[in-house]
Amino acid sequence: MIAASTFRGRRVALFGLGGSGLATARSLAAGGADVSAWDDNPAQVDAARAAGIPVCDLRDLDWASVDTLVLAPGVPLTHPKPHWSAELANSHGVEIIGDVEIFVRERRAHAPVSPFIAITGTNGKSTTTALIAHLIAHSGRDAQLGGNIGTAVLTLAPPAPDRVHVVECSSYQIDLAPSLDPSAGLLLNLTPDHLDRHGSMQHYAEVKERLVAQSDVAIIGVDDDWCRGIADRLESQGRRVERISKEHALGEGLFAQGSLIRRAHEGVVEDLADLSGIATLRGAHNAQNATAAIAACLAVGLSVDEIRAGLAVFPGLKHRMQPVARRGRVVFVNDSKATNADAAAPALQSFEPIYWIAGGLPKEGGIASLEPFFPRIAKAYLIGEAAAGFAATIGAHAPFEISGTLEQAVAAAARDAALDAAEMPAVLLSPACASFDQFRNFEVRGDAFVSLVSALADADMLIDVENNGECHG
Q1: What is the C-alpha to C-alpha distance for residues 145 and 1, in angstroms, rounded to an integer?
Q2: pLDDT digits over 260-288, tens only?
């Protein structure tokens, strides 16, 4: 844990007592801050009280004595309207920050030269973050992985010169981290998202830009107009910018051409890596993820040989296009995190022929947008509440059956795929639906898929089922 000593003796109000909020409260208390924590959910308040966190209704605080309000990332700062705790802080001139800002201040105070990689973007940031941490750890360095990817940043080991922090940042976290200054800041891409929280695409882009604006090197994907504009603006201000692209060769920067990742510099083009044969990095979207990860790792001192060695054994992000088993020629892929049609598209684009397990609690629009990929589907196995609606959409394009449950779908898909003469048929769980009709969350759904696959006769598991989905070896 990082003890937030930069807040020693300061009066800190904290709102939001979920996992990251509790971790932040503990960090502040360990660092000597005078903490008062609260949540609109009484159960969260009770849990914090039981954990020894000082709790009180922030409406009852003497705000004239408060130095800082720490908000959990999910609490509205500006849109659609500020949370009542933010309004109280604003009315008393109290700064409002989040846990990433606390981390940034601790690093600056105690280990300012420690390597710090921060990653954001509308899509691909979790896979890129996991890949960067994997490459660093595989090289023998100490990689601390956290942030929006699921581990609260203040639960990580403290910054140190020989320790690399790899932190995924959502737009909410960036909004609460005004002095964010990573060694390498990555902005992968920008498309409309979370506009209910940011008010407009312009403001959303401005928030995302903050992650790279003060970084030692700004690594920016330039395949969309918003990011190209940010790269041009930062470069005009004298910032160091490394452009990346999955769509175009660049005169300067890193880019993907087919399975090759290349770097152009001063008229010389160098091949850095070849992704062919790396099952966990299939598809154009993963070419961007790998290009960004390579740029970040080069920025913090990894060699090209170290990067190539790590890429070859990347296990993939759990529940995201993760190959989990082989059974003869058939590969089984866990893409449970694909909870809507857009999220399922990369997997459908990356495998063929596909024995597709889809369905659950349907999202607006269903799977109509996936029609261009239907020719890749050998058969669909439909589960959950969405089964009938999905059948109506896909029925004219590909064979299907209403399996109902995941257990029946896995058994049927495994049976049919084994008869396919193709080089590598894929049994793909990419539901394009929420899980809540049959499972608590997409993680539980993905774990159930892995368990069912592991029970198949002759299944050669590519992950350690008993060790949270880590790859063998």
Answers
A1: 13
A2: 999 999 999 999 999 998 888 888 888 99
The CATH number of domain 5-97, selected from 3.10.560.10, 3.40.50.720, 3.40.720.10, 3.40.50.2300: 3.40.50.720
Residue range(s) occupied by CATH 3.40.1190.10 in the chain? 101-311
Q: What is the pLDDT of residues 67-123, one digit of tens each?
A: 999 999 888 888 788 999 999 999 999 999 999 999 999 999 999 999 999 999 987
Please state, rounded to an integer, the average pLDDT across all residues of the chain.
93
* Cβ burial, residue 162 (10 Å; 0-12/13-18/19+): exposed
Residues 6+ apart with CB under 8 A from 93: none
Answer yes or no: is pLDDT of 312 > 70.
yes
Which residues in the chain are classed under CATH 3.40.50.720? 5-97
Please list, in sequence order, all residues whose beta carbon lies within 8 angstroms of the beta carbon of residue 267, skipping any fewer than 6 positions away. Answer: none
Pairing mode, strands 142-147 and 163-168: parallel
Compute the distance between CA of residue 186 and CA of residue 131 in angstroms, rounded to an integer: 13
Over the stretch 204-225, which tens digit does the pLDDT of each residue have?
A: 899 999 999 999 999 999 999 9
CATH code 3.90.190.20 region(s) in the chain? 322-471
Query: 101-311 belongs to which CATH class?
Result: alpha beta
User: How is 79-113 classified by DSSP, letter by letter?
Assistant: SSS--HHHHHHHHTT-EEE-HHHHHHHHHHHH-TT
Q: 322-471 adopts what CATH topology?
A: Protein-Tyrosine Phosphatase; Chain A (3.90.190)
Residue at 365: amino acid letter:
G
Higher-confidence residue of 6 and 462: namely 6
